[in-house]
Design brief:
By secondary structure, the protein is mainly alpha-helical. Helix content is about 65%, strand content about 5%.
Length: about 750
Amino acid sequence: MSKLIREPSRPEAASATALPLSPGTIVTHLKACQKLAQDHVEKAFDIFLKSLYDAYDIEIDKASSNADATEMMGIQRSVRKHASELKHYFSGYYLEGFVKFSKKKLNTTIGEAQSAASEEDLSIVENEDLEETIAISSITQRVDTYFAEPLWALNQRFSVLNNGEPVTESGNPCSPIQFCDALKRSLKLIELNPKAKMLAYKVFDLQLLNLFRLVSEDVNAYLQQQGVLPNLKFSVPRGAAPKSYLAEDGDTFGRRAEDHGIERGAPDPESPPEEYQADLIAAIRGLQQQIRTTAAASPTPSVVYSADQILGALGGLQNQVAGTTPLTQAGIASSAVDFEALVQKLKARLAEESDDGAVKKDDMQTIDLVGMVFEYMLNDENIPDSIKALLSYLHTPFLKIAFIDPGFFEHAEHPARVLLNNLADAGARWVSNDGSSQFDMYEQIKGIVNRVLKEFDNDIKVITSLLFEFNSYVKKVSRKQELTERRAKEKAEGENKLREMKLRVNDEVRDRIKGKELPSAVLLLLLQPWSDYLTFILLRHGEKSDGWESGTQLVEDVLWCIEPKRSDEDKVRQKERKESIVASLRQGFTVIGYDANKGEKLINSFESLCALASQSQKAEPAPEPMRNELERIAAERAGQHPHHEEEVTPEEAQMVESLKMIEFGTWFEFEGGKRLKVAWYNGRTSHYMLVDQMGKRVDMESGLALARKMIGGQAKIISGSSKPFFERALENIYQKLNEKAEAAQPAADDVERG
């Protein structure tokens, strides 16, 4: 699968505005357009996969039977497993269109056009293929309709790159049909049932509008700058896009903004951080204004308080909060600050200067926004209750910062934002709900909060200094925790490897003695010290080593030697082998440090059995209860515990399967507020190694036991996020304000109509 455009052997130089364009210039433009598209395609496909996983989760929850849920979970696992491959092929198939275009071979068709290309196809179109064709036709028609003018402009400009020959959607490497064709071809890599495949197209339908917008804007802009029809005029679409033809009333997977790839007007998380923060704050401010506008208007005040007056009142409140009992006494701050009460106190202090004054609209929005950030913090389950209570005391100084530095909200790297992020993150990592903490982290955070309240006046440098100090401490703690956790993980992996080797040896020996009546001395010899020796050889030298071959062969030789010998030839061979076996046993016992007296007793018993066999006599086999006991002890020594068949409910089975999807580093909170993290997983036994907040191993929990605790409410997953606390807070605020604005709009419309 080719996806690269190669330069011609002798590129010709040509002016960007000269027409017709030289082959070299055309290739240069195509490569540039290809690169612009590639950047957007790869980012968009990551979002598509994330949304598809969610769609499958919802389908699993709605499944009418356990079999349907299990099938969909299997498909979801397959998609996750092949995610990178799917992305690679999707990108490759799409970018290959530019190569085909350069060779005048691009002609992608669907639906009726595709069927008409072959009369044979008309008679053998299966239902599944027909549904897929209809889905692709619906998706492309929706995008074609909404972006008719930008697409027309692309066709005109690619016609120039096609030596003046007309280009339609089927031959345009950027057109919507090319994206759908790439998806169709890449989905063939995995086995999907019709429902799973249609879900993929429905999710892609939500994504493609934004993806095509980004590609068409960049490619049109680039070609215009390069002088390819620079004066071509077209209108960018405004307003809502046409409703999806694939959408159904019962669909719930398109509930998030990112399912739609972020439509125009919404903040785009894929944009540069500073741009995204600015867009996010602008959107929040706009929603605040919209909500305030639709609310009942209040009378215009005669006096509006200035920012300096507000800062003065906040300074007094900060001093008051600094002397709060929970922060000045030893122990845990159990109660959080009442933000509404603080705002009322702020207004009361301002009223001392003017009874009929009011806070101006923009300043009130700032007060509300800071309040919403801290309200989100109080509801963030990732942060322990004890830390929420502590951090709530930072509300007033952070409100001051918002008035002192207008860029506080927009700049992701603002020292105050980073400090709050790091305090919240450290609390989530090393403090429990009851306030108990590792590395004295609770007291460290409490100390920082106290110092902010006492030392911060109007100089941000104080915050910067405290941030540097706290980060230095956290780095030391992180190194200690990572080292402890790595050692615990390495130890668990080592123990698991040893256990796997023991199980492998136990299976090997059991297979060789299966069905043979053997004396207890031979069973003891092979199942215990010699199995230990074989485990040592397997760990040290591997299964293909001479030591493993000779060690397992010795088991066969021992079994042969104790069988009754009736021919003189066998008796001679037995005597020779016995001497070799005894020497190998002594050497093996020495290697593993086996007790010398016990070892000699086993060897003497073996020699006695050989003597009996040389007289054509068979030794008395171990009674069945004794043999069973010896085999049970050997299995337990190898780490194989008795398997008790447990009845598993469908809910438990589904939870066990869901737990297999969690990543290393996932935190669980258990009864009493104890937090443990999954640091390692044993796929063979489905056991999870849980470590505490210091990185020390606490437990090895089975998937079923963990599932039952979650179902019973004794344990829950703490939803972590790679995003900093402050950014999560702003995104949550934007979402809630957006919902509030949408809910308020119908009421406002009714008022206008009335």
